[in-house]
Design a protein that fits this description.
Length: 188
């Protein structure tokens, strides 16, 4: 059972915003990946930026709420070597895909940097991107490297979106459960 936390109005406003952003992410993801409208991948990356992209100047909505409540929502990764669990931050720092480029050879891209690259190419980037030094050189290739045309990158963006949607829904389920428990306790 999640720890009981009385939700102040400001936090409730953030939770309501999270619900709206997750609804939009779900719709954009469905249209982009299930219906094949790849033009919406930039919107998917933009929504993911609001929810989970941590930088020096931005506070991602979902990650901030998870930290505020102190709820660990582990993600289980299945591998041939066994299952293991990651936090959402650890998952975002894990490898999304590797891209072979003519000038830099094989370049490994984390989930977090894939979001930045995708958003930058599709016009959903913002001035608060805080990029790793090594990754900045990959972005310089972005005019030569169309991220949307790479099947591995598209599959990784879909996996990131699905993972964030799952974590977000689990977070909201816990919030709703807590609110129902508080209502029951108040009636007693």
């Amino acid at each position: 059972m999640p720890k009981q936390v009385r939700i102040p109005r400001e936090t409730q406003n953030l939770i309501d915003a999270l619900r709206r952003h997750l609804t939009l992410l779900s719709e954009y993801s469905h249209r982009a990946f299930d219906l094949g409208d790849q033009t919406l991948c930039g919107e998917v990356a933009g929504k993911l930026r609001v929810l989970v992209y941590r930088s020096r100047t931005s506070r991602p909505l979902l990650l901030s709420l998870i930290e505020h409540f102190g709820w660990d929502i582990p993600i289980t990764i299945n591998s041939p070597f066994g299952d293991f669990q990651l936090t959402l931050d650890e998952y975002l720092d894990s490898l999304a895909c590797a891209i072979r480029t003519p000038s830099q050879g094989l370049v490994e891209i984390s989930n977090r940097n894939l979001l930045a690259m995708w958003a930058q190419q599709y016009g959903a980037s913002h001035e608060d991107w805080d990029l790793d030094e090594g990754f900045a050189s990959i972005l310089a290739l972005s005019s030569q490297l169309e991220i949307g045309s790479l099947p591995a990158a598209s599959a990784a963006l879909r996996a990131i979106s699905n993972t964030v949607l799952w974590v977000g829904k689990e977070f909201l389920r816990r919030v709703d459960s807590q609110e129902q428990q508080e209502e029951t306790d108040n009636k007693s």
